[in-house]
Specification:
heterodimer, A: 1040 residues, alpha/beta, TIM Barrel, glyoxalase-related enzyme like fold, 6 domains, 7-stranded mixed sheet, 45 helices, 44% helix, B: 468 residues, alpha+beta, Alpha-Beta Plaits, Dna Ligase, domain 1, 3 domains, 5-stranded antiparallel sheet, 4-stranded antiparallel sheet, 16 helices, 33% helix, 28% strand, extended
Amino acid sequence: MTSLQVKAPGVDYAELHCLTNFSFLRAASHPHELLQQADALGYNALALTDECSVAGVVRAYQYKKEHGLKIQLIIGSEFSLQPHQPEAHERLVVLAKNRQGYAQLCRLISLARSRCEKGKYQVYIHDFGDLSECILIWNPHPNSPNDLGSHLSALYKKNLWVGCHRRLSALDQRQHAHCQAMADDYDLPLVALGQVIMHSPTRQMLHDTLTAIRIGMPVHACGYALQANREHSLRTLDKIAKLYPAPWLQASITIAKQCDFCLSQLTYEYPAELVPNGYDANSYLHHLVEQGKSIRFPAGVPHDIALIIDKELKLIASEGYAHFFLTVYDLVQFAKRQQILYQGRGSSANSIVCYCLEITAVDPRQIQVLFERFISKERSEPPDIDVDFEHQRREEIIQYIYQKYGRHRAALAATVITYRFKSAVREVGKALGISLPQLELFIKNVDRKDQHTQWDEQLKNLGLDSQSHVGQCFLELVKTLQGFPRHLSQHVGGFIISAGPLSELVPIENASMAQRTVIQWDKDDLASLALLKVDVLALGMLSAIKRALNMVQHHHGRKLSLADITRMDDDAKVYEMLQQGDSVGVFQVESRAQMSMLPRLQPACFYDLVIQIAIVRPGPIQGDMVHPFLRRRAGKERVEYPSKEVKAVLERTLGVPIFQEQVIKLAMVAANFSGGEADRLRRAMASWKRHGELEKFHHKLVDGMMSRGYELAFAERLYQQILGFGEYGFPESHSASFAVLTYASAWLKYHYTAVFYCAILNSQPMGFYSASQLVQDARRHGVQVLPVCINKSVWDHSLETTQNLELAIRLGLRQVKGVRQDHLQRLLEQRPKQGFTDLLQVQALHHTKGMLECLASANALNCFSGHRYQARWQLLDNHQDLPLLREVREAQQEQLQGPSDLETLTEDYDSLRLSLEQHPIALLRNAGLLKGCLATSQLADKAHQSLVTVAGLVTGRQRPGTASGVTFITLEDETGNTNLVVWQGTARAQKQAYLNAQILKVKGILERDPDSQVIHVIAGKLIDCSHLLEQLKVASRDFH
Amino acid sequence: MQWLYLCFPSLQLDSLLHQQAYSQACVLVDKNEVVQANPEALQLGIKNGTGLAHAALLCAQIKVIAYDAKKEHRLLSQLAQCLYQTSATFYLDPPQGLLLQTSDMLRLYEGIGGYWQQLQQPLIERGLNYHYASAHSPLAAKVLAHAGNDRLLQHQRQVQMLLNQLPIQHALLDHKLALQLERLGLNTLGQAQALPKSALGQRLGKTLVNYLHQLEDTSAPTKPAYQPPERFRQRLELLYEIEHSSALRFPLKRLLTDLEAFLAPRQLKVAQLSLGLDYREHASQKMHVGCSDGEYRAESWLSLFLLKLEQLKLPAPIIAISLTTKGQMPWAPLSEQLFEPTQGKLTTGQLISRLQSKLGDHAVQQVYLRDDHRPERSFYQGAPQSSYPTQQATAFLRPSLLFTLPQALHHKPDQHWCILSGPERIQSGWWDNVNICRDYFIARNPAGQVCWLFRTATEDWFLHGYFS
């Protein structure tokens, strides 16, 4: 920010033409920077007039509100009449005078945008017909078509001005003369414009760089495409007064005074059709809740719960949110009719009203503590309900919304895609003429997780000459460009639905996906304007659970719903399973970190799961809250509270803050934050990455807590935790909704093991584990897994009853690489009841060769020919399909040698991504190539601190941001998985083996946690054994 | 054996490193994948095919250079020129291979050993990594060389044994085809060769059968063998030493006549000649004479040379002269020659050449425009071109006479000056660190001249040009 200027006496000026960086690559300042600077310079008003867009205005509005700026914010937009050529200077600026004018502006933008693909627009003079409540400022170009002036002045006598800018260019005089001539010819008033594209002259460097990015050339070659000087910034009023005639400045004030629209005037009107005749929204909601009570509480509603329901309904009525709940209710009812599994989450989703409306399956009797978290009056923010649907069927819900409300009333929120480190390095580097391989090297080499060395330091270490002029420019530009918006993308599922045409509330534009439209604001913008959105999200686990429930009904004859499972009392056996860390496939607790946390936390009831899900997250880990919680839970540390207020907040988590809500509440009760401040803290947490505004809460929090007698260390930890939440906030309400799915999936895993694995396999890709790992785990749980077979498999994995009357999983043909579902379905339709008898019969059906070859490689044709090589050989024969030659050919078939064990394995992995044969490590072990290595199952017998050697397939390398420098490697062998801990020093010293090995042999120290018995191997010596398989191949070849 | 194949797996990198010693890890990268790596990089576990990101993890300070297939092809051609001195018949197999017919050379060098020694010499001198193999068929030699066989085999039986064991992935087959063979359990070339060709052809197509035939085909490739470039190059040892430049006229004329005899039948002309002068007891010297439109006639070239030779003082007696050419081009008959008398008429190109000969190359320059807001950088001088696209001037008003360096005005323009327009502010140039910040004015001075003036941020005034 440049020096703050004292307002020049007697100069009044409103800047009516100003672009923000939401006019992508055309302007070099954030909306809030412009507003702040204009305010500091003493401007009376600032109009943000992005090109055919209002995407940036909410941020400026929010900033003005939060910082109490006096300056008037005007909303408008700039249009180039020749479609989207920034250099064609025939421009019109349209400013909204009032709410109606704003609606007209939004309609115009939507119209212009709807004609073009994403990111472009087209606007013609006749589009400007209906802007009666707007001001138009025409910036005529000397070469403009002659009729434009007459056309415009005929349409807008009263609201039309000629705008003239003064940027100290060689063309200023000519431009002036022309503006004056146009004003005289059409009898129009003149007004001063600044054509601002940056808040401060210091952004010239960045602006030139953006220009270079836009036209795709290095800066030094951009020539006259660059601005000749820095006059397109916000200038001091002194200077403005010298440059423009006084009447022009006065005109800007006249115009500004006519514009009294503010975003706060936008009110959201809910769709009306959800309320049947004879009801209003509140009475209808009451009615539905009454109905729901009898479904959810067949034995009658307990007294305390009935009281809470009344309280919730009253609050909903007084805040006017009934329509919102009805909208979500309508969606889930549709899902229910279509038998699509869903689950609501969000701050309001776990209210009892939502339980009664069947929006969520979280039984309030299991988590009574949650109710205080329902919408509260002190927070003006709207209630938040996200609904997860089965991921393969979410599109049906989206289509339902479009169908029900129409495309003019429903659209997706936008997501503003911003320049991140990588894109900034790449684009700035190209603009400065740095070679591409060099830039790629920078990008790939910089470790953003390195907490000790900043990225600019790292770039210097990589050979960036920071002393050179270009090097310094590069660092500065990359720093500034990060966080700049690049384009608008569609939000994953945030819908906004309105009563009237949406395009009068906010402009709509095309998304890159066909048939999708997005609004110009993202979800944070909607939240700051208190507009309601419904999140329609997709969740793979819901698909898996749905499949499992269907299979339970089909194979076991038991009909179950999600709520049925949660309504049953906590099943101790299910928790026992989880306590042992046996959680592969179980929602949210299957990761490696969760798996080793389970035996420590020993979850024994539903609320334990809620904590379990939330605790292995950056927030609690960075705040160092995990270990205190574990100690208290194990009874090794006394649970005590510094005060009664704190006890109320932390009692349910043994005095240790785990959830985001608790942290905010703590700021209120322990550091004396007001409701509004706490709300700002929560916002800052959500947008920490964008603005880095958390720092200013630091002192207030720490000082506030210390003055109330809390320890400095505790306060600092709490602040660290807040920073951690900033990266990935995880509220209790989400955790509770997820816990329902965690419990349901664990319950299915325990009670219907084969069904569970089959359903998870059919829902791939999802979760943490590959099909191969899931199949191995299933087999370790005693589930028989049968190979793919052209005569027995169907597309999906299926369940088959074996001779011992047990359910086994028959692998489905979906597992075969390179096979299309529609092609395969056609083949399966032609399969005779008893199955095909020989390969010729299959070939005679004339299916694509590629598919049959894939099936052969996957050994799915094993039932006909001796082995997969022979099957492929036969399939490849071009002349096979001539019926007369069939027998002759068959007799002549060359006999190929069958695959060796290793080849079978390779073929299996290549064509199925998994193998039911021997594990590669077992092959090596049997061939005597892994002498001295223990199998994973043998580690259990080894003592703590003993020296061990293990070997396995590297199936995972993880370097969590929360664990400084430690890498967790998962080694898989034929008996299970070993968790390897590699310290940074170990990894650095043995880089090659650490990074390259697919099969890794490790000498290390076994460590066993005394409480949970969880085993880790601390890596010492790393040996890359990937070549052993090759060795095995050569060896086997020599034997044949 | 008839054929020898040489392949250079790191031709571009070797050539680079040969010019400049470099002791750190260094790789060539194509599409974010390492394609050539020096020993230091290999030591760190970086191989061909390693992704750039992975390579960067293995060595943060790695030097990365972009692979350039064209450059490599050029290097191969240069290498071929050199090998042409030892080998008569060979073929370029770009970007990295050479196929040599050995049978004819064996007599000359008395066996393969002698020949190989001769052949290796320039490769070693150039610091190249190479693999080689000899075989009865060109393809067999190529396949074995690429597999890193590095043996000169005498008998076909040995070659066949090696081919039999060759993993199919190394057989230089199309990747897809190789994969198909593997998925039939045919992991070595021998296993594939053992099956009837007709059965293979029916299943895997002609390409494979052709390949197998080619492995046995001993005949030469159908493409033409390497030919040295068709460029004139001649050296003339003088019978007597020349001490005065004027005496060069006659030997020079001889060379030029030979040049004309070389060019005329080929219907070629050249744009530049270099005359090499070898002195006794003095470093030799080169003299360049150009004619942008191209010329082949001895008479024309001689007159150009004589203009230059007039200025030449010989530092020592000349013992030999040589002539090389540059910018060879075909005759393009000028249509005007048919009907119009051309004597006494010079084309732009000819004029430029004349001027350059008379004044020296650097004395003749052409002014070009460049897009840059900074006046000093909005034009530049460069070597003249006889044809160039006309450039559009900017819409800005600029003086017809612009000083190369602005002249300081000792007095601020006073009331006797008349400001006609301005200020035009030019503030630009951060990227090359030649920032300027000036306010330009057009003003009439007391003498009535229309001047282009500017004022700097420090309130100093300069005169930068005059309007006509």
